[in-house]
Write a structure and sequence with these properties.
Length: about 350
């Protein structure tokens, strides 16, 4: 996922400081590449195509290709069976990954992830940095993911917003209107109440993060907004690529909406964020660097008894039921404070 790839890119900053002249390569899915383009700490981005390189034959072929690079160290951040086998196939003398029953025979160092965060960085950051411990890289200060935009991309976003008659003197909020799936998307009627509240509190412009195929869902939500919220909504302005979204987001006052990759990208651009977590996602893991600039809300914050004694599998199954309990009032109580300062 895009958020995972961006968050994991923090390791390159730490590795570059330790090994300033090393070749540091990143093997990722092609669609996630835009979030790490121009990262000065990454030597090469290697794209993996699960359709082309599938099956045992594809695994062997790809493993042979990686082996030719003579890697000294391989860090398997994914630690799925397929990636663990690829790590093994590289022949690297040092192979590091996450502790799972199938990784122990394939990786030389396996790290057990913590379940409780030790700092405001959150588990997503802390656990990734633990993967550097076998290299003797410890006691690191939390590293924030970064997105590197070019001057041309920033100029494009500014010019585009100007030509679309967006008033840059007013707050511009990027709305993460849809999650990565239906079970990670705040209910439509509830989200409408959130947007109505923003429009009533601030004289602003609302932009929306979506892809063209999702336009009908965006239109359905806008149709049930208040007249004021409709007036300030600009669904016609959106990035046609991930890099264009990033450039537009860099010009926004804040990003508000469903927790996910868009929130991680906004944080990496140093844009304030307000994230609404879905019930089954761990806030301890993904709510990184909470502050006056970065807020997040989870149903567990308000109704902890709904989660008491329930296994993660049960929570996943009950996600839609739990979402109904995540009333807009819970969100608005925190959002009011957030938009006062952002």
């Amino acid at each position: 996922m895009i958020g995972d790839v961006l968050t994991s890119s923090i390791l390159f900053e730490a590795l570059r400081k330790e090994y300033p002249t090393a070749q540091l390569d990143y093997l990722i899915y092609k669609h996630t590449t835009p979030v790490v383009e121009n990262n000065p700490d990454i030597s090469n981005i290697i794209n993996f195509d699960p359709k082309q390189d599938k099956g045992l034959k594809g695994l062997i072929t790809y493993g042979q290709k990686l082996r030719k690079s003579n890697y000294n160290i391989v860090i398997d951040l994914y630690s799925k069976p397929y990636s663990a086998l690829l790590a093994y196939a590289t022949g690297a003398k040092i192979r590091i990954g996450i502790e799972k029953w199938y990784t122990k025979p394939l990786l030389l160092h396996v790290i057990k992830y913590d379940s409780r965060p030790q700092s405001s960085a959150g588990l997503a950051i802390e656990n990734r940095l633990k993967l550097l411990h076998p290299l003797g890289i410890k006691n690191l200060s939390p590293i924030k993911p970064k997105v590197y935009l070019t001057t041309e991309e920033i100029n494009w976003a500014q010019n585009y917003l100007s030509t679309q008659k967006v008033d840059m003197t007013r707050p511009i909020y990027m709305i993460s209107i849809l999650g990565s799936s239906n079970i990670k998307t705040y209910p439509e009627k509830y989200m409408a109440e959130v947007l109505n509240f923003i429009a009533s509190e601030k004289d602003c412009t609302l932009l929306y993060n979506y892809i063209p195929s999702q336009r009908p869902q965006v239109d359905n939500l806008i149709n049930i907004l208040s007249e004021k919220a409709k007036e300030v909504s600009r669904p016609d302005i959106f990035g046609k690529s991930l890099r264009e979204f990033l450039a537009l987001c860099s010009q926004c006052t804040a990003l508000i909406g469903n927790e996910g990759g868009a929130v991680n990208m906004a944080k990496a651009l140093k844009i304030p964020t307000f994230a609404i977590f879905s019930p089954q996602v761990s806030k301890e893991a993904w709510s990184s660097f909470e502050s006056d600039r970065n807020y997040s809300v989870h149903l567990r914050d308000f109704r902890p008894k709904l989660f008491a004694g329930k296994a993660s599998k049960t929570i996943n199954k009950e996600s839609s039921i739990l979402y109904k309990e995540f009333k807009p009032d819970f969100v608005l109580s925190k959002l009011k404070v957030f938009i006062k300062f952002n």
